[in-house]
Amino acid sequence: MIENEQQLKRNFGFFGTLSLVIGTVIGSGIFFKQGRVLQEAGSTSMALLAWFVGGIVTLASAMSVAELGSEMPQTGGIYIYISKIFGKFWGFLAGWMQISFYGPALIASVSYFFSTLFVTFFHLPAKINFGIFSLGSVFCIAVAACILIALMNMLENRVSRVFAIMTTSIKMIPIFALIIFGLFFGHAGATSSLVNLFANQIGQGNFGVAVLSTLFAYDGWVVISNLGGEIKNAQKTLPRAVTTGIFIVLLAYMGVSFGVFKSLPAKEIIALGDQAPFHILSGAFGPIGGRLMDIGVMISVIGTLNSKILSFPRVVFEMADKGQLPFSGFFHTLGKHSKTPNYATIFEIVIAALLLNAFSSSQDLSDWLVFVSFLFYLLTFVAVFIMRHHLQRKPHFSAPLHPLFPTLAIAGTLFIEISTIVNAFTDPTGQQLFGIIVSLLIVALGVPLYYAKKIYKL
């Protein structure tokens, strides 16, 4: 462990942490997944059930991580949990996965999506000229967004806390608008024949694929556990914020889906695809409604980007604290006044920028993340049983009906992993299989690094 007085500030209370949970999960998926889930499920009833099942699996996962967080309320999240339960080697690989690929790729993916929306909204040219050379507008705006949010996160973490609360509050406006319009003004939509659809179309969809789509939309909340060292009374606050946040997200996803289904016929929702929510608000409030929806989504995505850039450098910082990284003293340095891991933040942003330059779309990046990240989620959920066995008592936060929730979390994770493998081998382009192999190879690169650091004291 690095011997100095570097210590993060505990500036996140319950509402700040809750805002980060909600803001991390609710990015763009809530606005763009209804058509895909409806098409896969085969009916509005089954689509709503898919959102509910995905939410319950996610809530079970959150309950499981909350148990671990209540016993290990430290910076680092699953890196710490896996290190303490399965040993330093597996913990290192979990941390390495997050800081070398998963975290930067998520940052790159979210910033790319924000940039795409930004360029379209302001009708920017495809290329931006810099004298003798030019760069793509999407790439430039994405990198600029990463840098600006990173600079903000180099200030005291209370600034990030306030930003998280503001963006989460604003992103709820279009969500409430869709829910309220659907409930009170949507009379000729997909749910008008709800009973008939349930009776006649239950066997026509692929319910498993629909649930898988919702689970991807619910993903991302676990990174909040990385901030355990900056949360006030983390032993109690982290479990409460994570479980409450996921429950609110579940209600929001169900509400938005019901609002969309009640406002438009099923065939039109599928035909409109990603544009269905924009079409509804444009019809309700005219062109200004559509523009406000665009702004709401951009704010939603930038709030998610803030959560990612805030969270992942903390894993770099904690691994450096344990002396597990080359130049650990450098990465363990905090800002003199801000007490934030600024060098670790720069490290993550540089990798994210390289990934942005290497990939042509945010979808390419996000598709690669699923398999390897959920492998370590699986270890985390198994760790709940091991921890309870060693404790010989209930943890400080104890999920009810044990072992129901960790069992559901494990089942949901296995479903995602198996489905991803099946889809990879049936994908005619071979991109998914290629992504799985590359992501596993990146994790494998951590093995020689771990032993080189251990043997040669790099």
UniProtKB/TrEMBL annotation:
Principal place of residence: membrane
Keyword Nucleotide-binding: no
Superkingdom assignment: Bacteria
Residues spanning the membrane: 12-32, 44-66, 78-97, 104-124, 130-151, 163-187, 207-229, 241-261, 343-362, 368-387, 408-426, 432-452
Membrane topology category: Multi-pass membrane protein
Gene Ontology MF terms in the entry: L-amino acid transmembrane transporter activity
A GO cellular component entry from the record: membrane
UniProt subcellular location: Membrane
UniProt xrefs under InterPro entries: AA/rel_permease1, AminoAcid_Transporter
Extent of the signal sequence: none
The protein's name: Amino acid transport protein
The species this protein was found in: Oenococcus kitaharae DSM 17330
